[in-house]
UniProtKB/TrEMBL annotation:
Residues 16-264 form the ABC transporter domain. InterPro entries: AAA+_ATPase (IPR003593), ABC_transporter-like_ATP-bd (IPR003439), ABC_transporter-like_CS (IPR017871), P-loop_NTPase (IPR027417), PstB-like (IPR005670). Keywords: ATP-binding, Nucleotide-binding, Translocase, Transport. GO terms for molecular function: ATP binding. Transmembrane segments: none annotated. This is Phosphate ABC transporter ATP-binding protein. It comes from Dactylosporangium fulvum.
Length: 269
């Protein structure tokens, strides 16, 4: 099997900086000059009502927005100070460094658990020994909090796992390419409370080595998992902006803007 050789030197969490990011779909502006610093090795939660541009912003952070027909963007995204959109940087490199986990778990259902973890590595086409692959699979499943549940059945299909296990398998798959940032778009919205707790524990454990940016509609979850928070809002047909951002404790305990207070206390959205 030809497979990418993982670089086993540990990568370090990187900061992300969005600078005056605007976005359009078919000429319709949905984000207006959004700037946000997402510190390395921390969890930043993006909150706000439906349709205010959180997912669009997240997709801009790993260059997925540009794949949508009719989508445009302006502004800059810096990964540890280096332009993610620099023409010299390959899009696959940007995606390797900034991984993504989606709302609905999307493992390859017929592929084994083992091969699912390694699926992303095939991108670079280098070879790795069997031992290296085994070690990487164990390491990533352990970090994703799934190893003990699947160690005895690594050859079973990924689709045979429960929804929560599938989501942790997707996290393990993302980790195998050693991302420096992990983006999570409502990763628990399709999961039951117990699975949600497991994913939240995983997020907390991972955050020291990979920067995490998570979109969530669950205010308790934002408070449990994040150290920083940004509140997005698109008022009356205007494009989405960040109304307020800062340490999560302050955003929930002493918001400066009345609209933030109304939202975090469940008065709208
Ligand atoms: N592929 C697309 N084509 C056209 N418009 C889009 C597309 N994706 C998103 N939009 C529009 O962009 C705006 C922002 O959508 P986005 O999904 O980023 O918001 P969101 O805050 O993540 O919403 P939610 O919380 O419901 O997921 C919305 O008005 C949406 O209709």
């Amino acid at each position: 099997m030809t497979i990418a050789a993982p670089d086993l030197t540990m990568t370090t969490a990187a900061s992300l900086d969005a600078r005056a990011v605007s976005a359009w779909f078919s000429g319709h502006k949905v984000l207006d000059r959004v700037s946000l610093h997402m510190p390395a090795g921390r969890v930043t939660a993006l909150i706000g009502p439906s349709g205010c541009g959180k997912s669009t912003f997240l997709r801009i952070l790993n260059r997925m927005h540009e794949l949508v027909a009719g989508a445009e963007l302006a502004g800059e995204v810096l990964l540890d100070g280096v332009d993610l959109y620099d023409s010299a940087r390959r899009i696959t490199d940007a995606r390797r460094q900034v991984g993504m986990v989606f709302q609905k778990p999307n493992p390859f259902p017929a592929m084994s658990i083992y091969d699912n973890v390694l699926a992303g590595l095939k991108l670079t086409g280098r070879r790795a020994s069997r031992q290296t692959r085994d070690d990487l699979v164990e390491e990533c499943l352990t970090k994703a909090g799934l190893w003990h549940e699947v160690a005895g059945r690594l050859r079973s299909p990924g689709g045979a796992l429960s929804g929560g296990q599938q989501q942790r398998l997707c996290i393990a798959r993302s980790l195998a390419v050693r991302p420096r940032v992990l983006l999570m778009d409502e990763p628990c919205s399709a999961l039951d409370p117990t699975s949600t707790r497991r994913i939240e524990e995983t997020i907390t454990e991972l955050s020291a080595e990979v920067t995490i940016v998570i979109v969530t509609h669950n205010m308790q979850q934002a408070q449990r998992v994040s150290q920083y928070c940004a509140f997005f809002l698109a008022e009356q047909g205007t494009p989405g902006v960040i109304v307020e951002h800062g340490p999560t404790e302050a955003m929930f305990g002493a918001p400066r803007d009345r609209r933030t207070a109304d939202y975090v206390h469940g008065r709208f959205g």
